[in-house]
Task: structure prediction
Amino acid sequence: MLMKGRFTHNIDQKGRVFINPKLREYIGSSFVVTNGLDNCLWAFQTSDWEKIEAELISLPKSARAIQEFMFSGAVDVEVDKQGRILIPTELREWAGLTKEVCVLGVGNRMEIWDAKRCKDVISKISSADIEALMDKAEF
Result:
C-alpha cells in the first residue's frame, strides 16, 4: 500500500513536525527528506531514495542542475519517540515552513508543505485540469 492522505500539524520552534502513523507505516522510522517542486519538501523511503540516487547519477552532464537540486537538500531523518522528525533549518527556510504544515501522502513519497501554500496550490487545481490529465493517462 502506498502513502495517501493529508494531515495538518504545527512545526515546533526546534523545527520538528509530527508524521502521522499511517504515513510512518509506509515510509518507516528513518527516511530521506529533500527539496521538492513548488517549494515543498519530498520524503522517500531510504530504499526508494537509493533508486533515485542511481537515476540521478546516470543523468547526462546537461542535467547537473537536477542533481544539485536533489542532492544538496537531501538529509537522513529519524522519527523520535513522539513521532516527529527534525527538519533542518535550510530546508525549513527553503520550503517556508514556519508554523502550520501540511503533510501529504503522494504514492511513494511524502510531501511537506507550508499549510497555507498547500491549500492555495490545491485550490487552484480545477476538475477540468484533472479530467484532462486523466484522459491523457488513460484512467
Q: What stands out?
A: Residues 3-137 form a domain with the Chemotaxis protein chec fold (CATH 3.40.1550.20). The radius of gyration is 16 Å.
